[in-house]
Amino acid sequence: MWRTVARRLVIMIPQILLLSILVFLMAKAMPGDALTGLLDPSIDPAAMDAQRVRLGLNNPWHVQYWDWITQAVQGDFGQSFRFKMPVSDLIGQRMMNTVWLSLATLILTYLIAIPLGITSGRFNDTWADRLITGYTYIGFAAPLFIFALLMLWVFGFHFGWFPTGGSVEPGTEPGTVQYVASKIYHLLLPAISMALITTVTTVQYLRSEIIDTKQKDFIITARAKGASEARVYNRHILRNSLLPIAAFFGYEITGLIGGTIFIENIFSYPGMGQLFLSSISLRDFSVVTSLVLLYGAASIIGALISDITLSIVDPRIRIK
Amino acid sequence: MTKKKPVNARSLFFPIMMALTVLLAACSSGNGNEESSPSATTETATPTSSASASPSASETPAAEDGLYSINDFSNVKKNEGEAIKGGSITFGLVSDTPFEGTLNFNFYSGDPDSQVLSWFDEGLLTWDKSYVYTNDGAATYEVSEDGKTFTFTIRDNVNWQDGKPVTAEDWLFAHEVIGNPKYDGPRYDSNFTNIVGMAEYHDGKAKTISGIEVLSEKKLKITYIQSTPSLLTGGVWSYPLAKHIFGVMDVAKISASPEVREKPIGFGPFKVKSIVPGESVVFEKNPDYWRGEPALDEVVLKVINPTTIVQQLETGGVDLVDSFPVDQYPDNATLSNVEFLGTIDRAYTYMGFKLGKWDAEAGKVVPDAKAKMGDVNLRKAMWLAVDNDQVGKKFYHGLRWNATTLIPPSHPEYHDSTNPGVAYDPEMANKILDDAGYKMDGKFRTNPDGSELVINFISMTGGDIAQPLAQYYVQSWQAIGLNVQLEMVEFNSFYDRVGANGEDDPKVDVYQGAWSVGIDVDPSGLYGKDAIYNFPRYESAENDRLLAEGISEKAFDVKVRQDIYKQWQKLMVDEIPVFPTLYRAVLAPVNKRILNYAIGDGTNLYPYQIAVSQDKPFVKE
After folding, report:
1. CATH 3.40.50.10140 fits B139-254, yes or no
2. How much is the pTM?
3. Sorted alphabetically, which PANTHER family does this protein's record hold (chain A) (predicted)?
4. Which of A227, B213, B294, B316 could cysteine-pair with B285, CB 3.0–4.6 Å?
5. Nearest CB to B276 within list A149, A168, A274
6. What CATH number should be reported for the domain whose range is B9-28+346-584?
């Protein structure tokens, strides 16, 4: 299997390279550049041109691309025009916020999904099941950004239970207990909002898996052997039903990327998603391309993780 | 010539409720702090998630038929109650992007950063209501007979927050850094090239800037090449750079240094205590501030999303905000815990007509006599056909209103209120077109030579009303028989096609843009023949003459200058290379506990005086 993993990782390189070219071309195809917004009559157009030459914006795209990619493989993603600092530092600053938010969301997603999925699957067609599936349908139908705004309004503003922006209380000392507590407190509401929506897929999956497994022959065998209902569910059904859930884990990462972009903007939570959108509209190309590359790599790795976990939890499946 | 920037919607728009507006840079309305940085501000309609204000009797400007008028607003906060000692306030920086964190006046480029900066740093010079430098600031100035040499004296008690004095050396150092070819900020502009010896220094031909001389520790002399009245209105770079800190650094590395980003320094009323990059800053008072000890103990600045601004105000989450979307005002006019301040924005929206091209080689406009919009009768008819008064009322509840001339009333000294512009009169418009030979052929008119006339109109996307507003104009023009085709374009493409890079799109005939004007009234950066931002590509001898006279030495006499710009405003109303459509209001909600606060210029209220009447903000009842 390790050979397969290694091979997948090798295939990743051309994938990411192709992605980088696509991203770069698309970024360049956007009208305007970082200097377009600086319409200032008091600045000599010649000075603007000099800036463009200095930033290499006048070169043909393949030259610009080569300059960028050769730097990028050495870990230098260039300088953000808007922030005037290295892109890698900038992303580093924001990344941890997004990572914490995603992690919290992921944990909450499973905390919600597993009990609900099991209840719904085990007692299907009862009122509890109908309630739960009802919730999942609403979850499917409700767009994340509307739901998040609603949550923000109800729990952030109306009840005032949660902070309504930022990632930490201004003025808390990094490293202290208050700081950590404040961080957690700030990401709770965004994480819950996102988890309540993203979890519905997993609940549905789990439910149908359980219902499906319930009718398998080996369950009938287990029952026939006189295994208790609890044992049947915990040892036989649940373990088998969790397979696809585990496999989904990697793809969940991809989903989270999309979700955090919305959530971060709504909750003014300074992570990568927020950085991404603002960099697009300001044509801060070096940041946009680096972030897309990062997102792309995360998705590809997510898919790989899924495949690997699948092969681990289900010995019948072997990736070749 | 300073500070002009396009105002518009530079924004991405999400299908619902989420306007991702991006403020690049804007002139702040602080108390005498100046930015010569420009660019796109935003004016999008930013709908809030919810906002239900129950109408109730209150002292807020009365709205008849849901209409408001800027005249009913004060720009100075009513003081209610006694100030308590100390206190802490929260300032909301309304932005859906984190602030960049380039926290130095010499380097920053975005408006969010300037908002952060204005709490802990300031310029050495302040200005009055007419935007003319006063001698009330941290430095005083004297001008020589010929108006070219300025001698500045920094007050003795003006010190950096680390205790070191702010010196003439620091002021010179700021000029040297900005003039350095390795400088990576956006400040090296005509204000700098107008300094004697600056160009030579910038090109590396001279080791020092010959026009700047340090006379003593606190005295600096700067000689300018051309003396113009614009020098007195924002033409002097008044932000020193602490040489004892930055003097040892490579110029290219200053903007990314921790001394700019993490532990910034200034000489303003508050000191930076802690920063969470991009989201919040805590300031504590600077007891040694030169004007006196600040009344507040602490100011907390946090970034708040435009979608939640109303809720933040209602709950007292913020006391002040840097900007408030005007379109949310009608729903929130009666908020019980805040007072809305208002003033006239230094900006106008306008329609531009493409009359020529840009010659990049020569660096000047080339009018095209055969341009589609070349006939002034056609342009005038198009102005007559639109009812901007109704646009202001219907689309903006009266908080934007019909514009008459190209110098907005935010410059009361120069705005010619006796000039009525061109008022709505569709019959007159039809008559002018008939007389000029634009005959009706079926539904639409043709050119006088009988050829088909299709006018391509582009307008910017962003905000809820961008599209309907543009549609309104198209319909108005169609009503007088003009076949106008609308295309909605995103900010960057818009300015690309209009010609911000000198490559005008020949398919554009008419465009709707907006400019935010600088504190100096001189419009030559927008309408001069050698200005790339003269998007209409308009040129005339009379225009050249008036613009040159406006910044000549004789224009130091305010009366003379007023007369010159009166003539210029008239010329623009006659020739119509562009026509102004709307003037606009800026509104700023302030929690009722805040005392001694004002927006706008020359109010003689400074941030160190801000106080509170009670410990906690008022919340909505």
Report:
1. no
2. 0.79
3. DIPEPTIDE TRANSPORT SYSTEM PERMEASE PROTEIN DPPB-RELATED
4. B294
5. A168
6. 3.10.105.10
